[in-house]
Design a protein that fits this description.
Bound molecules: heme C
Distance between the termini: 32 Å
Helix content: 25-40%
Strand content: under 5%
Number of strands: 2
CATH topology of the largest domain: Cytochrome Bc1 Complex, Chain D, domain 2
Radius of gyration: 22 Å
Number of domains: 2
CATH superfamily of the largest domain: Cytochrome c-like domain
Length: about 270
């Protein structure tokens, strides 16, 4: 999926799994809901001038993609540090050195400007989207992850791709708990403890199993001998990736006020 527009077709129209559930039977009704809102009529006419019928799924997709393209986080403390406009504390500096060093090895999978490994630029010829198993589960001693979130395996049914996921961006990671594809890790402290252990041992319950010995686990996920101070340092570094200017920008704030009448939410005045 190379464009945001293409990506959106999955959640909107996809049938396996059904996400937003848009289909030929309800499509007209959904467009009519937009057309019934004076604010949307005004904004779509303004955004797509000269079109007879500006409220359409094609334009809804373009509008959401344009919004998504605007959400660029580039003013975290760490970004400002790279520009020479902020100084990292000794703790944060040690965390950065661990993150980008060969002891903690985080950068092998989270090393791009977005702290993932899905980054490509204008001159990239081949788009690679690597997937990794980080040893979170092993339900059966053969590497099983709990259904229905078994990573690439859900699409390919290739057993070696069981539990393989993309390394997500770590920008603003301190404010996006809980963590991992299923939100099964509550805090950054827990995330670091799992990496330090080389995977997660689920000791009891229905998901019992020792992910540290998952046969599909990436060779990069091995026990790391981190002292309590080094764990704190890594977390201090991860906290420098929080971009408050983005998080508090009215541009990205929810434009809907809470519902005050039975007719549903009303829109705040355009910013
Ligand atoms: C082998 C590649 C790899 C390495 C090395 C790696 N990660 Fe990850 N990381 C991933 C993948 C893949 C996920 C998503 C796993 C999932 O959702 O099941 C992830 C998830 C995370 C998350 C949670 C992200 C979220 O939004 O839920 C954090 C935080 C994180 N990693 C930090 C680190 C740190 C810190 C290190 C170094 C100690 C590290 N990672 C090393 C691949 C890696």
């Amino acid at each position: 999926m190379v464009t945001l527009e293409k990506q959106m077709e999955g959640p909107l129209f996809g049938e396996e799994p059904i996400e937003m559930g848009v289909n030929d039977n309800n499509r007209k009704e959904i467009v009519a809901r937009f057309a019934g809102d004076a604010g949307y009529r005004r904004d779509f006419a303004a955004a797509f001038p000269g079109e007879a019928d500006p409220i359409s799924f094609g334009n809804i997709i373009k509008a959401i993609s344009a919004f998504e393209r605007g959400v660029v986080s580039a003013s975290s403390k760490y970004d400002l540090y790279l520009l020479g406009k902020a100084t990292l504390t000794p703790e944060e500096t040690r965390g950065k050195d661990l993150f980008f060093g060969e002891k903690a090895e985080c950068h092998h999978c989270h090393g791009s400007v977005n702290f993932d490994d899905q980054f490509y630029h204008a001159k990239t010829r081949e788009i690679e989207t690597p997937f990794h198993n980080t040893g979170l589960y092993d339900l059966d001693g053969k590497g099983a992850y709990p259904e229905p979130n078994r990573g690439v395996f859900e699409n390919t049914h290739n057993p070696t791709e069981m539990g393989a996921f993309r390394a997500p961006s770590l920008r603003n990671i301190a404010v996006t708990a809980p963590y991992m594809h299923d939100g099964s890790v509550a805090t950054l402290e827990d995330v670091i403890d799992i990496y330090a252990a080389g995977g997660r041992n689920v000791a009891s319950g229905p998901l019992k199993g020792d992910g540290r010995y998952n046969p599909n686990k990436s060779a990069l996920i091995v026990p790391i001998d981190l002292s309590p101070q080094e764990k704190n340092d890594l977390i201090a570094f991860l906290k420098t990736l929080t971009d408050d200017s983005l998080l508090t920008s009215p541009r990205f704030a929810d434009p809907w006020k809470p519902a005050s009448t039975a007719s549903g939410p009303t829109r705040a005045p355009a910013q």
